[in-house]
Amino acid sequence: MDVKVNVNWMGQGFHMEAENETAGKIRIDGNRTIGGLEGGMSPMEMLLAGAAGCSAIDVISILDKQRQELTDLSVEVTGDREKMKEGYSVYNSIHLHFELAGNLDEKKVARALELSITKYCSVSKALEKGSKITYDYIIRN
């Protein structure tokens, strides 16, 4: 399956807009230290957001199939970034912290998270080749 995204420069600094084939948009920018306007996420931040969003979609879907009553979900994702000698940087590790709310069976939540991170989330699977990915969670009632 081919995926297509267009990225267009907004005419100033490093500010760009990415648009997919269904007109979904996201802003991309560099930070001020390199001349960015901070009008969007950096490409490295987008990798973290992609991992969090992908896993959240999995978790919502799995819990729905398990007939769990999820009322809220948020994911805080952090990356331990290391600058390489060649000038680029990598995430040595990525940690996802899930906060869920609702009438939830903790065993089913734990299983949904495990399945997402280790099996279903394509973004995490792509990133795990160069980054250690960990996660934890809390359930709020």
Q: How many strand units?
A: 6
pLDDT below 50 for ≥5 consecutive residues: which ranges? none
Main sheet strand line-up? 1-2-3
Largest sheet: 3 strands, antiparallel
Q: How would you portray this structure in words?
A:
The protein is α+β, with helices and mostly antiparallel strands and 141 residues long. The protein has 2 domains: 30 residues, no CATH class; 98 residues, K homology (KH) domain (GMP Synthetase, Chain A, domain 3), CATH 3.30.300.20. The protein has 3 helices and 6 strands. The chain has a 3-stranded antiparallel β-sheet, with no helix packed on it. It has a 3-stranded mixed β-sheet with strand order 4-5-6, covered by helices on one side. The longest helix has 23 residues. The model has no long low-confidence stretch (mean pLDDT 95).
